[in-house]
Design brief:
There is one protein chain. This protein has a domain of about 240 residues: Metallo-beta-lactamase, Chain A, CATH 3.60.15. Helices cover about 20% and strands about 25% of the residues. Helix 3 crosses helix 5. The N terminus is likely disordered.
């Protein structure tokens, strides 16, 4: 066992709760729940507030006999809901927007949120499908820009990136100089939809979570250098499924997340440089992964307890986070039925 894995286990050793923690509180009153649905290296993250409003970030892949829509619908049912209030499409790649038609066959949706028109040559087909579905379904569409607060009730979700634009200043107070910019490389400019991703920072009381979609390193540098506009967060949803185009050390180190959750697939995402950057970030207590990364191998993946789907045939297991306003939270691996508790940091 690697030393950092051992240290991670020690740091979170406070409360080890079984799935009965969830069963004892079926209504989950006063909690923020986040389901990291396994869509095989795409994204589908369901946020459920104490007001029983739901925000789904992305819809996974198309086709596959409706696999991703079925898994999202199962998460909605587990949350005790019958609809999704808002679906946020971070950008128009098929692993993020492709599942829209199949999702609408399974779950009613109140409104879609996006960054506006497609900007990438090659993604026109996905965007045309998306527009057609929204118009034919007569569902409200909400374009957003940096600084906007999403209309979901029960948590504050602030847009920090959209359509290639970024928040001009710090979310809270003044942006602090970022010492990790000193050795930061200048990334190539990304011209794909990835750099147009809608990214949000969520505040739930003292708990802060960051989801930037597939935002690329060039945009990360604008957000973080020379000053950190995002501050520190408790939970980092590892950008771009853990691929090397994102999650630069200047970002990962400066946000100093206590827990990172990676929605990688077995063969997609989970790149060694990103795994190492996350492992080596200051303050990290644990890395959770939706899949064992074949590229990462034994030396770079998390321990089995922190992986929802191990090497081998996919089982579609999910990860669930239950957050509290005091900054504490639990993370459940549905494969094992075990949840690990994370206390608020001393600063809280």
């Amino acid at each position: 066992m690697r030393l950092r894995r051992f240290l991670s286990t020690v740091l979170v050793a406070g409360l080890l709760a079984s799935a009965s923690l969830w069963a004892q509180n079926p209504n989950r009153g006063g909690k923020l729940r986040v389901y990291f649905v396994d869509v095989e290296g795409g994204q589908a993250t369901l946020w459920v507030t104490p007001a029983d409003q739901a925000l789904l970030i992305d819809t996974g892949w198309p086709n596959n006999d409706g696999r991703d829509a079925d898994r999202i619908a199962a998460a909605v049912k587990d949350a005790g809901l019958k609809k999704i209030d808002y679906v946020l499409i971070t950008h128009y790649h098929d692993d993020h927007v492709g599942g829209v038609p199949q999702l609408l066959e399974k779950v009613p949706v109140g409104a879609f949120i996006d960054h506006g028109p497609n900007r990438e040559e090659g993604a026109e087909k996905n965007y045309a499908m998306y527009e057609k579905v929204i118009v034919s379904s007569k569902i409200k569409r909400i374009p957003v820009k940096p600084g906007d607060v999403l209309p979901i009730v029960g948590m504050k979700a602030t847009v920090v990136s959209s359509d290639g634009q970024l928040i001009p200043g710090a979310l809270d107070g003044e942006a602090e100089p970022n010492a990790f910019c000193k050795d930061a490389l200048t990334p190539a400019v990304d011209t794909t939809e990835n750099s147009r991703s809608v990214g949000i920072e969520v505040s739930f009381g003292k708990l802060k979570l960051l989801d930037l979609g597939d935002l690329t390193k060039d945009k990360e540098k604008e957000l973080m250098c020379p000053a950190n506009k995002l501050g520190k967060v408790d939970v980092y949803v590892v950008s771009h499924h853990g691929w090397s185009q994102s999650s630069s050390p200047a970002l990962v180190n400066a946000i100093s997340a206590r827990v990172a959750i990676m929605d990688n697939g077995a063969k997609k995402g989970g790149s060694i440089p990103v795994l190492d950057a996350v492992w080596n970030s200051p303050g990290l207590e644990a890395l959770w992964q939706l899949h064992y990364s074949e590229e990462g191998g034994e030396d770079h993946n998390a321990d089995d307890d922190y992986i929802a789907n191990l090497d081998g045939p996919d089982k579609g297991n999910f990860i669930e986070l239950m957050g509290n306003g005091d900054g504490s939270f639990d993370v459940l691996n549905s494969r094992t039925g075990i949840a690990k508790h994370y206390n608020p940091p001393p600063a809280h």
